[in-house]
Write a structure and sequence with these properties.
It is built from 19 helices and 14 strands. The chain has about 525 residues and is α+β, with helices and mostly antiparallel strands. The structure holds posaconazole and protoporphyrin IX containing FE. Protoporphyrin IX containing FE binds next to helix 7, helix 14 and helix 19. Keywords: Heme, Iron, Membrane, Metal-binding, Monooxygenase, Oxidoreductase, Transmembrane, Transmembrane helix.
Length: about 525
Amino acid sequence: MSGTAALIQEVQSAGLYVFDVILALSTAQKIMIVVALPFLYSIVWQLLYSLRNDRVPLVFYWIPWLGSAIPYGMQPYEFFAQCQQKYGDCFSFLLLGKVMTVYLGPKGHEFILNAKLNDVSAEEAYTHLTTPVFGKGVIYDCPNWKLMEQKKFAKVALTKDSFIKYVPLIREEVLNYVNSDSQFRGNKGKVNVLKSQPEITIFTASRTLLGEEVRNMLNTGFAKLYSDLDKGFTPINFVFPNLPLPSYKRRDEAHNIISSTYMKLINKRKQENDIQDRDLVDALMKNSTYKDGTAMTEREIANLLIGVLMGGQHTSASTSSWFLLHLGERPDLQEELYNEIKSVLGDRKEVTYEDLQHLPLVNNTIKETLRLHMPLHSIFRKVMNPLQVPDSKMIVPKGHYVLVSPGFAMTNEKYFPNANTFEPHRWDVSQNAGSSDSDTVDYGFGTISKGVSSPYLPFGGGRHRCIGEQFAYTQLGTILVTFIQTFKWTSKLPKVDYSSMVTLPEEPAEIEWERRAE
Ligand code: X2N
Ligand code: HEM
């Protein structure tokens, strides 16, 4: 007891001494100390951390809190490759105050995408990003079992029968766009794909998933609200989900008006007893009661519509932008696509869902675009219970995050020879071969593959796997076919902007187009 008391005394007097010394310093010196202290602390902390053999190796950084944000935020795949050389497939880095543990390659895909529900949480990782935009009660603002059911509810509007109806609508929207937008005036010209593709995506997705009423509202001032909401769906939300700035206020106002508008639409259909099988709105009106007997409220249905549309919007617009830019460098592929389409459709121009199933080069063009440009370069989970890295003594503690990057494996020579070359034909031979694991699992939204150790996972895997894959292929396939039928184009491939929500081309992202002779 007295030993401890003496020690406390000792520390106290040492502390007082240091305090006296600091007080005696000049103001400039004091400021220097205050500035240097966080750096000193961070370096000592990293030193002690590196001595622990129960921790994943941590990438060294100079700037406290910021950590490795700049190299990661600017070139994540290059950053991962450098870390992999030093530390192997599993390493940690600091990102804006959060410790992120990365596990690269198929083993990492399995470790993170198939981690147990109790050990990792997607909602804890994403809710700051998504809830201010989508609204309350859905996606990552509810327990996981509700998300699993929301995915099941939404999937009803994402079946083959729906896609058969959607394809002509998507084609009509694309034709309407390329025949009336000012960037497509005349017989040749230049178009910024970062403007055209988001517009084509929202028109086609709204027309099919939300119905004609909402689609028509996009020709009015309503479109500005979409743009305001969209500007609020940015990675800045991970750090600052709410700030007293005009853009945040516009986001919240846009959210309220859009969700109220969807609720009005739901109510109108209810009152007129006009509930059919047209779109996602109908599907959710018919089927949105959880297995515990509680029904989703109209507000929640509206928010789910916002979320699903918003997710599909960014991923799909990025993908079509990239395939246009890649094909612009490959006129030979455009001709091959043109001939493939001609050989299946003959003199017919109106592509159908069935046709899309018989156009392997169209589908492989999308598949190859997703390989090179997986829209989400990083997938996160928050660690809720200490998590052991398989076959090691290393533990990822509660409160840290895990990060999986299938896009890294998808652009790696180890898995894809000539990884950086855009070559849709690389998929010609091994159509679905290779994924030998036929083991499946159902988390509540339909059966999916149990294993996630493929290096190619653009739609993720496990309980959070995408439900939009078939819709995306249908939408993107119809857009691609319609472009090939209408235009020839050239372009120069831009660099990648990794700091947006999805991996986008940097500006200028233009194609020079020319209408095909009839
Ligand atoms: C400060 C450069 O820029 O150094 F949407 F119904 C709806 C989305 C997950 C994005 C991760 C990190 C960027 C750091 C920049 C729905 C369709 C979904 C699925 C650092 C200096 C939402 C993480 C963005 C990392 C970029 C999560 C999406 N299908 N959509 N420093 O989505 O699914 C949905 C699901 C994510 C990200 C990043 C930095 C269902 C910097 C400079 C600066 N990213 N990002 N979805 N960074 N710097 C979605 C899953 C969910
Ligand atoms: C989940 C990719 C289009 C709806 C995911 C995930 C990925 C992904 C990687 C898993 C995220 C994670 O594990 O954290 C893509 C790509 C798309 C696309 C590459 C297009 C090319 C769509 C579309 C929709 C959609 C069109 C809706 C119609 C969803 C939903 C989830 C999801 C609801 C589930 C989220 C969860 O369970 O946590 N997507 N997506 N996606 N996606 Fe997509």
